[in-house]
Amino acid sequence: MQEYALFLGCMIPMKLPQIDAAARAAFTGLGVKVEDVEDFSCCLEPWNFKGTDLAAWLKVAGRNLAVAEARGIDILTLCNGCSATLIEAAHLMRDGRAEAEEARKVLSKAGYKDDNKAKASHAVTFLSREVGKEKVEKSCKRRLSGLKVAVHYGCHLLRPSDVMELDDPFQPSFLDELVREAGAEPVECRGTMSCCGSAVLERGVSQAIAEEKLKAVEEAEVHCVVVICLACLGQFDLGQVELGRKAKKEARRKPIPVIHYFQLLVMTQGAEVKKLGFNRYKVKVDDLLKAVVA
Amino acid sequence: MAKVNLDFAKGLPRVEEAETVIACFQCSACVAECPAAAHPPRFNPRDIVLKVLLGLEEELLRKDSVVWDCATCYTCMERCPQGVRPIEVITALKNLLAARGMLPPEAAAAENIRRTDRVIVHSEAVDRHRKELGLPHLSAEGKRIEEVMGCRNTPSSWDA
Hints:
Mean pLDDT of chain B: 83
Strand content of chain B: under 5%
Low-confidence stretches of chain A: none
Strand content of chain A: 5-15%
Radius of gyration of chain B: 19 Å
Oligomer: heterodimer
Distance between the termini of chain A: 36 Å
Number of strands of chain A: 8
Helix content of chain A: 40-55%
Largest sheet of chain B: none
Number of domains of chain B: 2
Structural class of chain B: mainly alpha
Largest sheet of chain A: 4 strands, parallel
CATH class of the largest domain in chain B: Mainly Alpha
Number of strands of chain B: 0
CATH topology of the largest domain in chain A: Rossmann fold
Helix content of chain B: 25-40%
Number of domains of chain A: 2
Order of helices and strands of chain B: HHHHHHHHHH
CATH architecture of the largest domain in chain B: Orthogonal Bundle
Number of helices of chain A: 14
Shape of chain A: globular
Order of helices and strands of chain A: EHHEHHEHHEHHEHHEHEHEHH
Structural class of chain A: alpha/beta
CATH topology of the largest domain in chain B: Fumarate Reductase Iron-sulfur Protein, Chain B, domain 2
Distance between the termini of chain B: 21 Å
Shape of chain B: elongated
Largest interface: A-B, 67 and 62 residues
């Protein structure tokens, strides 16, 4: 059976191990074999690190790709940021720019061979394109009782669309389909494709963008938001706590749980939810779990 | 009067077609759906591209530069009818700011990685949480990327 290198980055294994646990359990449920690769480093996020040192960003991404290539395996990630960095850097490394040439030279000198043979994909893309609807649905043993979900794609898995080549950059459907396959109901939500605002360094602007989105989610009357990116997750989960602190008591909203797609999938697959670390989020997930696991 | 650098656009580091700015006809398609443009102080990708074209270097390359308010959502480049990639112009400007030592502290924080291979610092709590969830132990902080990362890169074309 083909194996894949599980690329966790640093946010997931260190701050959000509940997503690590959910993904591993879901892969087992689907019969997908993943391998831990000690030699991987952090991805280097594609928003501000690419902006502060493009050459270093290319070198680190190129190194991680070379590590997978040496093992002859492809990479699966759990976050838009890691996916965007690995996919975009693989593209930029081959367009002849000075920074890419320098990165290739440094990598080769350090003994890393990057011939563009290892491909990186977000694990949700992999489910949608490789594993397929039938297998995902078949792995789901539990029936969810009318779980309504706001699907948040984030930006970096779809755009720049000429590099990511995944789905329509403004009207994608693959994640809605995966949510449906996992037994939940994706609900149309104003501004589905709007950005979470995480990369904006001016905190007031960043929070205002997140607040816009959370308002839309509230109007859609969903049980939770499903994300596939750690930046989006923090922006909406911790972000709700920060916004709640800032707001006057009467203006505070009912918190809406934010979970990663693999946590939804693993719940439907029948995992024992108590063991999946849902209590680690800022916004409590208990009501959601009661609704689902009834 | 504002100082004008006529070679500013030409001198931008070649970060993903940053040189396409020349095709901009200032239609504002990039502003319409820009998430950061919707909130004060109203970040504006069209205006940034205009300043690059006019050579208004000092207005963009300063400690409190507006470029850090970009959400990096790529909507501007997807919507541009002229094939301009304002986000990559902004990325090029950020690289220039970093090379000139004008990084805001929030962006500089990402530099942890140079020392530890990771942006997040490893702690006993991390090990405990992973153990509780039955996850494999994380390897200690390495020096794996130090040899390839090197010091801050400043190609001669970026020099101030």
